[in-house]
Amino acid sequence: MSLLTEKDRPVVQLLMDTDTCPRCVLRFCCVASQTLYRRPYKDLMKDLKEFLKNNKEKEDTVCFDIADPPCKRIRLEHTEGPGDVNHNGALQQIPSVSDENAAMENSAVKACNVCLGILQEFCEADFVKKVCQKVNSADYQFTSFVFSVSLPPQLSVREHAAWLLVKQEMGKLGLSLARDDIVQLKEAYKWIIHPQLSEELNVPADGKSLFEVSVVFAHPETAEECHFLATACPDCFKPVKNKQSVFTRMAVVKALEKIKEEDFLKHFPCPPSSPKNLCVALEIQCNNGAVFVAGRYNKYSRNLPQTPWIIDGERKLESSVEELISEHLMAEFKADSFNFSSSGREDVDVRTLGNGRPFAIELVNPRRIRFTAEEMKGLQQTINNSSDKIQVRDLQLVTRSAIGRMKEGEEEKTKTYSALIWTDKAIQREDIAFLDDIKELKLDQKTPLRVLHRRPLAVRCRIIHTMKSEYIDEHHFRLHLKTQAGTYIKEFVHGDFGRTKPNIGSLLNRTTDILELDVESVDVDWPPTLDN
């Protein structure tokens, strides 16, 4: 039960006379009963008119019975049009409703001059079913939902005008009305529509849900109503990236907070005029929060980049590690797109062996989100059967926050490599044996020439923890290295024209070059090892 008191009578009369819908009337009377807003529209209209008819001596309050079943369709009664607007800053007298009985019988929907129909037609069962049909046809997996709504920015202007109108009326009674006292339109709308969507979709509404159902409303007829604010408060309207118009809701709200009441009333009618049409629902969209899949990959090809190799718009190689893994994940999760990340990266001609390199893939807006451990194992096998260039292991679902552990390893952990090295001068076993005794060798590595086009010029201090040489013949040996993550191994071998100091060439006093490089381990303890 909710009560309207005698002090609300002038406000109710004023708003009803200006074609304001009953739910907006309740909002401006600061009624915060969620159940009351969910009552059938026709019953709310009837009760407000009965409230106005009540003789003050007979009854000072009106009670709304909230036990009525919901109606199937909106029936918004006709009222007389609002009075003329004085654009010199004065609020003119407004004629009252002339024939209530005739209005109750008239079934035409007349758009509210404040919410432009949001709390009218778009709260009804037909629109709820339309939203749910869109959700169900999109074939998402979800166990709850969060509902969001985007309203036309001019609604804030109309609400501001209505607030000034009501505030002046209450001032006559010695009462005040702060802007924040009014029940927000979005809040009232969600009170009404949440239970209906929840019942139709058979899942609860949850503000923390990763599945979002959103509706974007527009009202072309009044689209230019907020433009006068750009002249009055130009500082509030700056071009915003990815926004087609400077008249965003936030910019309009900011301007309304700054503009003086007298300046506002010079440019905008108060009460706001009655629109000819209701709002339209421009978009009904669904979006699932991202799902994250992690694992480790081995790369066995010396002709495969980690990510697509495209230079000046031209693709150099037909595939990549990223694509060989993600194409199967995209298909199974039915996602819109993906983002690939890993603990470091190897060059196109470098293999990754051992237990592999940790990676994670963010799957954006997936339709399917639930996979059992067995299903993930089957998906891993599908990836491995599709190519002999890569293999994945420990494939699993992870959280966004867990990915941070993988990124820590890019600079903080150690990595082990195996390099096949050529020397211009002949060598014997004893010529390279001393390398095995070098520990914690500090390098100064200037940004390599080969990556200078995409990395800033800098000198980076890196450490070679240990080395173990393996003699092959007079001009070849293999070097096993354990290094600080982020060390440029190729440059450590050949010196990069003196940009890496010291280097294998300077240590051996010979010209050296690297013929093959393998990553043997990436010492990041993530993701957790599974029984594969």
UniProtKB/TrEMBL annotation:
Q: What is its main location?
A: cytoplasm
Quote the catalytic activity from the record: uridine(55) in tRNA = pseudouridine(55) in tRNA; uridine(54) in tRNA = pseudouridine(54) in tRNA
- Please report the stretch or stretches of sequence annotated as the Pus10 N-terminal eukaryotes domain: 112-286
Q: Which GO terms describe its cellular component?
A: mitochondrion; nucleus
Q: Which InterPro entries match?
A: PsdUridine_synth_cat_dom_sf (IPR020103), Pus10-like (IPR039894), Pus10-like_C (IPR048741), Pus10_N_euk (IPR048742)
| Gene Ontology biological-process annotations | tRNA pseudouridine synthesis
Q: What are the EC numbers? A: 5.4.99.25
Entry keywords, A to Z: Coiled coil, Cytoplasm, Isomerase, Metal-binding, Mitochondrion, Nucleus, tRNA processing, Zinc
Localisation: Cytoplasm; Mitochondrion; Nucleus
> A Pfam family name for this chain?
Pus10_N_euk
Tell me the Gene3D superfamilies matching this sequence: 1.10.10.2050, 3.30.70.2510, 3.30.70.3190
Q: What are the recorded GO MF terms, alphabetically?
A: metal ion binding; RNA binding; tRNA pseudouridine(55) synthase activity
List, for all copies, the residue spans of the domain called Pus10-like C-terminal. Answer: 292-523
The reply to whether Metal-binding figures as a keyword in the UniProt entry is: yes
**Protein family (similarity comment):** Belongs to the pseudouridine synthase Pus10 family.
Q: Which NCBIfam families match?
A: pseudo_Pus10arc
Any idea what this protein is called?
A: tRNA pseudouridine synthase Pus10
Q: Which organism is it from?
A: Pterocles burchelli
